[in-house]
Design a protein that fits this description.
Layout: H1 2-11, E1 43-46, H2 52-61, E2 64-68, H3 73-76, E3 82-83, E4 94-103, E5 109-114, E6 126-130, E7 145-148
Parallel strand pairs: 3-6
Antiparallel strand pairs: 1-7, 2-4, 4-5, 5-6
């Protein structure tokens, strides 16, 4: 899934979102018609899977690309709060970005996840996902990686 994107990025420079905005629509790639930066990746670093402590250390370095099981209707209908639903399973089908983590006033830890579905989804395009042991909610802790620049 996103490993393909990192591999592509190794030979093709990145494009700023302002030059190629996300539209949430299927269509033809316009990569060859937009202005590219000079930024390429040299690969990616995998963070220890199913280990919240390792993920916290990884996200302190760079945002983490993660995969989640987003097929459960509650995932798509998320609007606010700390998401905690292990019923979504671990059959991952959607790539997102963990940009940090936090703790609420009840001492509940959560990942701060940026989704690609626009600012009208979730909390202005973000979701707080409860940190739990193992695979994590919807498999969020199974495949964390970050690009090497």
């Amino acid at each position: 899934m996103y490993s393909n994107a990192f591999n592509y990025w190794m030979t093709n420079a990145a494009v700023l979102e302002s030059n190629y905005p996300y539209t949430h629509l299927d269509g033809t790639c316009k990569n060859s018609t937009v202005t590219h930066t000079s930024v390429k990746t040299t690969g990616f670093t995998s963070v220890t899977a199913n280990d919240p402590t390792a993920m916290k250390a990884g996200v302190a370095i760079k945002p983490l690309s993660v995969r989640v099981a987003a097929s459960d209707s509650s995932f798509g209908q998320y609007s606010s709060g700390i998401y905690n639903n292990t019923a979504c399973g671990t059959s991952t089908n959607h790539a997102t970005l963990v940009v940090g983590w936090g703790v609420n006033s009840s001492n509940v830890e959560y990942w701060i996840m940026k989704n690609s579905w626009g600012t009208g989804w979730g909390e202005n395009g973000y979701m707080r996902v409860k940190i739990i042991a193992g695979n994590g909610n919807c498999g969020i802790q199974m495949y964390p990686k970050y690009p090497n620049l």
